[in-house]
Records
---
Amino acid sequence: MQKLERNPIIVDPFNTDFAKRWSWTTLGKALLNAAENHAKARGFGMMNLNDVNYTWVLSRLTIEMEEMPSVYEKIEVCTWIENIYRLFTNRNFSIVGADDKAYGYARSIWAMISLPIWRVLKDTNSNHILLPKSHVLLKNRVG
């Protein structure tokens, strides 16, 4: 399975601002959807974790945009995991257009928490879910 997930998107008019550029709200939703699609396809999405009383919580999100895509542009939100720790992951994103034009990049840190106690477990001797390192793409940016 590919370590890089590509999510094609067409910038719809109702997801743009007054300047006909993609809105920040829609960008944020696209990043979150890309992360979930990537995780779900690999067996560690929200529903998979909820079945065993865990879930993902977004801890940090940093976005750097060179420019926002315009209305009707075809773009891709790409995502990959940079690193996996015991209960945290570093996830990266790129927002690219035609001819791999880079619109911007994002980086996120996700924590896996226990639903019954609503916090990260600190007992390293317990049987936590471990994410497979085979899903890591050691690449900071796609280009």
---
Amino acid sequence: GQTFLNFLISDSMFVPAPIAGTAYGYAGDYIGITSTPEYVIPCWNDNRSGVHQVYCARFGILHVTTPVAAGWNMTSVPIFAPDSSKIAIYPSAISPAYRFENNTYHATDPLRTNRGWWIEFGANENITYVGARIDLMDMVVNSGWNIIGSISTTVSTSTVSPDSIIDSYFFKFENGYVVTDTLEPGRGFWVKTKHDGFLTLQSASSRNPLVAQDLESLDKFTISDANRGAQNLYVANDGFNI
């Protein structure tokens, strides 16, 4: 059980209610689950109201691994985690997680995804973050120096926007400060800005939206209602086992 992770998939208890006339006197006890390389999708039936209903949830299982060194590190949370408390994200850390805001360090818990952190570890190790992918994030910045975070993929600093408020190079910490032109997942970075605002990090894949001709290669489902409203749903099934 040491490799198991618990995820809350519903804020209501599973309560199948008896339905008269059925073979076993009740319905609503079916539970199924499927997955992709990045998500787990559980489904279940529930008829507590007397109406048989199907429920589904989705939660991320993307794994992002980042090395940290013994001593102080600049880190960030590059996924949406099911538990964002400092002890859940960094169980082996030997210090609080500090954010830098208005020229002051602040011990912070829980840890937000749109900031970077100063945090100390007792030994070299790999930190594995597990959760839902982040392809786009607005990092909070204040006038002056800031520690920003990362997303789930490496981002070129040349794509960070708006560049009009950036007033320095980007720096990472590796036995001292080093200028960097890439923002790697799980790391934190110093950058100076001209005024308060946000710096947007976006993955390369999400900057290339699906074009019309790509839809021809996908499975199409048309969903319609009694009022003749309709919507097409396109699904890519490559690599999926359902």
---
Amino acid sequence: AMADWKPKEKIRALQVMGDIGDRKSVAALRREALGGDESVRQAARDAINKVSLEVDGALEQLKVGLTAREDDVLALLADGQSNGEIANSLFLSGGTVKTYVNRLFHKLGVTTRMQAAKRYNDAIARDAD
């Protein structure tokens, strides 16, 4: 597991992930960007940015690194649904939805539902142009 690797090994792996543009690796990249050595965190952020730049469309860029379920929650949140309504729509508990919303805030770099919805809706509008 990458957690057992030395910082130099992690940095090189992260650079390779960024170079090949492997979108599925973004979740691992995000985990590395949050913890450990600062040089590893920076390499992870650089790789995420590199992968994001290679994705076509504003909405797809916004979704890089989101799980399918986080994507579902974001779409419903942007549509104005409450956590309870999202829970009912996706057959989840309210606590699970709250966890997804908090993860979305962190991944999108926002602190409110309105900001998350605006980022989502702005991305859709840019793609429509």
---
Amino acid sequence: MAAVVQETAVRARSLRPFYVGAAIDLVLGLDLLLFGPALAAWLVPAQAEVLGVASGTLLRALGVLLIVFALETVWLARAPNLRRYLSLAIAANWAWVAVSALAIVAGYSVLSTAGVVAAAATALVAAELAIFQRRAL
């Protein structure tokens, strides 16, 4: 019995990077959902709309997606029979890094300095999380 409890504690500790990633996604998602228009004016002041949709609305939609992703990551980490799908969370973090780099390169003229810093910082955090998450599996 003690071995089972110890194994469960070790497994929970090894999944900590996924819970940390979910917490970060949740906080960032809530920020984007609640303050999307204000953040858009600050991060991409030269781009009021993208394909006819307000930049603030797009940031709010991204916030909703991040909240759903955070909840899904926790669900996958807590369900022993679904843990094999946690590699999808790692792939999503690497996709975030790639999209952030693309946004910096392609959107450099419309991003404010704060927008470039925010994109680079979130990409750096996502890359670090992906590395720690891979080690945890």
